[in-house]
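Forgive a beginner's question, but might I ask you for the amino acids of a protein and the tokens describing how it folds?
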Amino acid sequence: MSKKDSDIPWVEKYRPKSIKEMALPSARLGRQRINLSEELENFIKHFFEERKKINIENKEIREFNRTVIEKEQKEEKKISSDIAAVLLEGPPGIGKTSIVYALANDFNMEVIETNASDTRTRNTLERRLKETTKSRGIMDFITESKEKLILIDEIDGIYGVQDRGAIPTVLDLIQNTQFPIIMCSNEYKTNLQPLYNKINRYEVHPLPKNEVIKIANNILKKENITNLKNEDLELIIDKNNGDLRGVINDIQGIGQGKIEGDVKDLILSLHRDNLEEIFTLIRDLFKISSLKEARDLTDKSDVDYNFLYKWINENLLTFLKSNRDLANAFENLSLADEIFGRIRTTQYWGLLPYFFDLFAGGVALSRKDTPLSKGFQRVVFPRYTSGTYFSLTTVEKEFVEKLKRKYQISQIDFIQGFLPFLKLLCGASRKQLKNVSDWLELDAKEKSLLK
């Protein structure tokens, strides 16, 4: 295997180039089972037909408006939301993103991708998507570039953010888009009902086990991997519980690694994102003194790189105390994010080592003024994991449950809004702290959150 091939994650190397190449998961629209490929292909065709029609009508309206006074002017027409966008909803790793990229290839389109859980406010959403969705740039006309397909991933990650205008902003962008939009989410969220009411929401299910086995065996054959028995492969599939991406990552790890001992033992020991490993890795990373040490640490780790990126980001303030160190670390994280965006756009995975170097080595080596701590340093969970599930400590969860007896509140609203407010309130006086504590019936640990 060439060095270039070994740099490419197999989930990308074997991502289908066409819908026809895919073993498509079953899907439903409401209670009706549908053919997902036909639905999405018709969605794309119908969008461009409608765009052409409305753009012609709006051109005539603009010409008319130039000839009359303001009171007599007509309002320009917009594309209906259900024609402009659709939502694919299903658990992580089942192929939703692959479907979008395959569809784009079939229509010779360019995918413009953003992650909604990383663009949590109205202003950020507008900045990221407004120009992309509303118009073509001048270079598009000069070079006659491809049409665009907008992919907004993890749309369920924007609920509960500091700016409640996020969903209305998405709806507004949908109505004004010049390109079709496909959104993806991991789960149903009642708070996204305004969005569900406007567009088609397809429930996408994991592939059946026999289809996952076919895909895995095909990859093993092409990679000439012979050290996995059928029962080993089935164990990997069962362990990943419908996550095709996880299956492919596991067989790549086993296939490219040097196997010593029983393969079954190795499979059972594979715990992606193992917390103990992450805690150790984060602490060790901020003790390193060279880029080679950082590379060795991340090379040995089985932690998903996107997940690890978020853990490092969350724990910077614990390990770096100097403003200059923090500024350098955040700058390196920003560059890493930019490189990963370029990887996704160009599919040039040879840039992945630079991504690792910047977000791991670059961040850890930013420690110049901060002395190396000799004592225990607590590693904290990132507020958003790789699957956008919000993580709270046990005490925080118990606090939320008691608070829910008084108010209907989400975990993210609790952390980002309610808890900071209660801390300010209770910090004003001991009497306020006692009143709030008695009102919510808090124990000593829960009460300590307010101090």
Summary: Residues 36-65 form the longest helix (30 residues). Residues 394-448 form one domain.
